[in-house]
Structure formats: structure tokens, C-alpha cells
Amino acid sequence: MRASFDYAVIRIVPRVEREEFINVGVIVLCLEKRYLAAKTMLDEERLKALWPQADLGAIRLHLEAVEKIAAGDESAGPLAKMELKARFHWLTSPRSTILQTSPVRTGVCEGTEDLVESLLRQLVIANP
Question: N or C: where does the chain have the smaller number of CB atoms within 10 Å of the terminal CB?
């Protein structure tokens, strides 16, 4: 059975005023299937080329927190206990920090088994 889903791309934005960014992950919500997931992949060399002073350790911790909140992992604190839709909206809300998300977009899927991995391949890992 087909279902609609919403997704956003997670971005690292080294200097907001320059509007440069690197896609580092995706967040996916499919309410019909009760599915919320985030997956990240940080290309450290690419980020260092754009932003040599990047604190990779801090960035990794923030990306890990996004994945844990999406998964409902209680170690991520009270945000992880919110309902799926509330977590998705919190994770995708506009920010002016180095960790941002794209506008939310919509798609249709048959199932959610490999949905987040497929979007990660298309939007983050894709060859330029």
C-alpha cells in the first residue's frame, strides 16, 4: 500500500551569511506507517575543505542527537519522548545555526524498509 511521507535534508552551514552548505543527512516521517527516522553521514574531508576550523567532534555529537531524537531514544532527553509528528517538526524547524534542514518536501513510498537509506544515497552520498 502506498503512503505519503515528508522529508528534509540535514545540512551543515559553516557561515550562514555565505549560504554555503553540505548535505549530511535526512529526516523522514511517514505518519501512515508510524515511521520517523534520521540518518546522517558526515564527509569530514569535504567539510574541512569548506570549513577548516570545523569542530568535527561537536558536529558528530549534534548529528547523533538528531538520529536519537528521531528514533525516540530516551537517552536523547525529553524531546525523544514527544509524538512522531512533534519530533519531526522540532527537528525540521528553521534555525540560523550551523546545523539546519532544508524545507520539508513530500514523496510517496510503498514501504519504509529502505526509505531513509535510499534518500541518503540520493541526497547526501550522490556523486556531484
Answer: C
